[in-house]
Every structure is written in C-alpha cells, then in structure tokens.
Recover the amino acids of this structure.
C-alpha cells in the first residue's frame, strides 16, 4: 500500500513541477510585443520638422499600437531609422476598435525629398499586389478587395536612412483603435 501511495505522490509532484515551470516562464509572442500609444495629430502633414516632432520613434520588432481619435479620424506618425542596408517588411494586422465596430484606414511610407529635405512625400512600396503608395486596411473582410485585414509592404533602405509611417484610421466609430505592427 505504501508503494502505491508513494508512486502516486511522485507522479503528482512531477506533474506539479512541470506545470510550475511552464506557468512561471511562459514563452509567448505577447512578451515580445511592445505596446505604445501613438501621438494623435489633427491632419496630414508633409513638413519634415512637424512630422518629426509628432512621430513616435520605433525600431525593428513587434508592436501593438493604440491610436486615439481626434474629430472624425485617428492619425499618427512613427519614425524608423534603418540599422542596416536591406529591404524591411512593414506589416499591419489585427485592427480593432474599442467598441468592436468596423474600422478601416490606410498607411503611407514617407521619405524626405532629397532636393527639399524640409518636405516628406509618400513613396511607392512593394506589396503582393505590385507597387503602391496607399496601403488600405480593415478590421474585417468586406466586398471591397482594397481593404484587407493584413497589409505588408517591403521597402529597401540604406543604413541610417529614416522613413516615417503615416497611419490614418478613417471614420472611427469608437474612441480609439488598436492594431499590431511589425518591422522586420
């Protein structure tokens, strides 16, 4: 009888130890995702100094951004400086409004004009659908094929080159939206 109890206790302790290790150090994508609230702006801007003053600096990695509405839209900028010369992938997905209603929008990749460094302009990027500068996205699939739930753009950058990403969540029916954004 003692052997049976001892065997049951040993098995229970082994299972408890495995569970304790698994729950005390969970390996998940959430742990690697950085959450940031973007600085909302009232309107689209092309002046480099104004964009730079309002842009949230980011580096390579995974982010969960929160974008608050000002008026009818939520608009914001992020700033990314390439650590090395290569083609970077920018992916937006999992757009959600805080009240669960439909949300949509677009984002642009912007670079400073080499002839006029005080001005930023939209640049064409490579997508699955070819070269484009307007990258539309939505919280759920619709009949409009332009608005998709996951949008990826590839941009070749040289080391030290800075780009800005302008987000616009149009016609938000809630106070804010959240979305995942990754730079690889």
């Amino acid at each position: 009888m003692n052997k049976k109890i001892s065997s049951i206790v040993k098995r229970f302790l082994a299972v408890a130890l495995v569970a304790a290790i698994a729950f005390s150090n969970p390996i998940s994508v959430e742990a690697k995702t950085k959450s940031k609230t973007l600085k909302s702006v009232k309107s689209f801007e092309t002046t480099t100094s104004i964009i730079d003053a309002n842009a949230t600096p980011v580096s390579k990695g995974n982010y969960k951004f929160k974008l608050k509405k000002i008026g009818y839209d939520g608009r914001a900028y992020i700033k990314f400086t390439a650590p090395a010369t290569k083609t970077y992938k920018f992916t937006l997905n999992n757009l959600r409004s805080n009240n669960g209603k439909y949300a949509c929008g677009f984002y642009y990749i912007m670079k400073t004009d080499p002839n006029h460094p005080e001005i930023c302009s939209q640049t064409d990027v490579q997508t699955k659908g070819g070269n484009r500068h307007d990258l539309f996205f939505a919280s759920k699939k619709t009949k409009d094929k332009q608005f998709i739930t996951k949008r990826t753009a590839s941009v070749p950058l040289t080391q030290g080159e800075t780009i800005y990403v302008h987000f616009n969540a149009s016609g938000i029916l809630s106070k804010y939206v959240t979305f995942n954004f990754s730079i690889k």
Q: What stands out?
A: The first strand starts at residue 33 and ends at 37. The chain is about 20% helix and 50% strand. The chain has one domain: 30-183.
